[in-house]
Amino acid sequence: MAHTPSKTFDPEREISARILAALEAGTPPWRKPWTGQGGPAAFPLRATGEAYRGINVLMLWLEAAEKGYASPYWMTYKQAEALGGQVRKGERSTLVVKYGVVEKEGEDGTEERRPYLKAYRVFNAGQIDGLPAEFTREADRPMDLGTQADGGLEAYFARLGATVETSPDPRAYYHPARDLIHMPPVSTFYTTQGYYETLGHEAVHWTGGSARLDRLTRCKDRAAYAFEELVAEIGQCLLFATLGLTPSIDQSAAYIAGWLKALAEDKKAIFRAASEAQKAVDLIIERCGSVVEHPEEVAA
């Protein structure tokens, strides 16, 4: 139901902390180009079918990924009741915010426009019993889309010397304690490029391991995790560009912009991250080379 913020309640701070916390769990849900529950999140919708915007999209994506909600629909307690539904006992709501402008008459008689922020709580349709069928969804399972590995890129990343573990677990991440990269099967990705961009992102994380550039030892807080994600994404783009491949720069630009926001708009963060990313790419190229040789090129 609606929630009125107290004097000590800071929804912007709570949201920022929630987004940064997602970094500790690996790649955020809006950067997952594969199928399965850990794949792309459904775009969050209000009970009316209207799409959420801005920071609320990230917040609801994170919550859906963490809790395994398959439905894109989110609604207040009262909206659920109006639709004939009942929030299950013990279910916890998710914070969203509304930005607006209120017009008030100033002391001099002129109209003043004052911005305001209102926080309220919503539930996913997966937390509610008795809703009409159109609001419910079943969780997506990983699908074998028949996406094929690229022989040249497989050989390229094999030269890196990193241990790459593949399992049905729909998550991609670098595990520092085990010093390995985990990847979902290539067949569950929508595109071959999406697979190798993801592998490249995790490979940059791998370069930060203690046995190599020892960058990850600096990840002591959430801001440091956000910075490391910037390094990995910029590094992935630099690596693809160096290899003469075209990175999905539109997706990466949006991703990077999000983490700069999370880093409190530190204008110097992007330059520091780019410097660290270049060091990571230099290490990858030192081990793997600057050219991807495809079978047909080798044969020629």
TrEMBL record:
Where in this chain does the record put each Polyvalent protein metallopeptidase domain?
Answer: 153-275
At the top level, the lineage of the source is Bacteria
The UniProt entry, under Pfam families, shows: ArdcN, MPTase-PolyVal
Q: Which InterPro entries match?
A: Antirestriction_ArdC, ArdC_N, MPTase-PolyVal
Domain N-terminal residues, every copy: 13-123
Per its record, how is this protein called by name?
ArdC family protein
What organism does the record attribute this protein to?
A: Rubellimicrobium aerolatum
